[in-house]
Amino acid sequence: MLALLLKRFGSLVLTLLAVSAVIFAVMSVLPGDPAAIMLGTSASADTLEALRRELGLDQPMILRYFSWLGGVLTGDLGNSYTYGVPVAGLMADRLMVTIPLALMAIVISIAIAIPLGVLSAARRNSLFDHVAGFFSQLFIAVPAFWVALILILVFSISLGWFPSGGFSGWSAGFFKGLGALLLPAIALGLPQAGVLTRVARSSVLEVLNEDFVRTARAKGLTRSAALWRHAVRNALVPVATILGLQFTFLVAGAVLIENVFSLPGLGQLAYKALTQRDIIVMQDVVLFFAGLVIIVNFLVDLSYLLLDPRLRSGSR
Fold first, then answer.
1. How far, rounded to the nearest angstrom, does the alpha carbon of residue 209 sit from its chain's CA centroid?
2. Which of 31, 230, 282, 297 has the fewest other C-beta atoms within 10 Å?
3. Contact, 86 vs 284, CB < 8 A?
């Protein structure tokens, strides 16, 4: 088991290094001059050259890459070209919105999908199964931004229960912050709940046909006990895989929802950095998203060891 963990961790580190090189190379060849965007088209050539030297843009690409990578490893993400402040501080402020938003969305997705998927599998081809299948397909088909607009029209404009956008900060009150993030979290979580419901249903149906479930029933366990004690636990491995992918999608895919609700999150920061050609912010944000995907997948691999005892014993 220790050898497996070390192997997975080494693969994680190598993947992060490779991803950082790809991100830096892509950002470096994007069209446009950050200095010209910052100073405007009327700036003189000498002024542009001086700003390029100040930003380090006159150095060879390989030197700029290792300088950036060294800063990332030491916690120095550089300074934003647009705002003139450390990128680490900008990202930390935005993460206080994006991470709670993603966590709330994944909780909503799990709370809807797991019961629907398990009960649909237990009542296969029943009316409940058909209704749950309809709603799961509906959640998958409807875009998140459209759900967001409908939620704003109903719960913000018509009923006035929740704010239609903006975030006053956690200092204004914990429950007030949750209220501002609830509608965006529902808009993000419903499409993911549709996907997770289908995966949970298929996985539970597959496990219900296994011999050990029939053996448990033959030993006297009720259908409900065999379902929840044996089938559901063994069906969680593919569900855990989808959950890992969903969390990273929710964090990275919050760009559109954060702009719909005017939330000062990491997605909105990435969008503004792209429009303002703030390369250093773009590099750091994209690296964070990519690193988050890799790390969450690593944690999902670790969860397999808890869910499947055969992996802990080293058997195939």
1. 33
2. 31
3. no
Question: Range of 128's domain?
Answer: 95-313
Tracing tokens 């149906």 back to the chain, one arrives at 205
Residues 135 and 198 in one domain: yes
Task: Return d(Cα 253, Cα 263) in angstroms, integer.
Answer: 13
What's the CATH number where 197 sits? Answer: 1.10.3720.10
- Cα separation of 232 and 92, whole Å? 38
Q: Can you give the pTM of this predicted structure?
A: 0.72
Residues 6+ apart with CB under 8 A from 222: none
Query: How many other C-beta atoms are found inside a 10 Å radius of the C-beta of residue 253?
Result: 19
- Inter-residue contact 265 to 251 (CB < 8 Å): no
Cβ-contact 1, 305 below 8 angstroms: yes
DSSP state letter for 65: H
User: Among residues 279, 312, 243, which one has the least CA distance to residue 28?
Assistant: 279
Structure tokens at 241: 């895989």
Same structural domain, 30 and 175:
no
| Mean pLDDT in order along the chain per 10 residues (316 residues) | 69 81 76 62 68 68 80 79 79 84 86 84 81 83 81 84 77 79 86 84 76 67 67 72 73 74 80 77 82 77 63 50
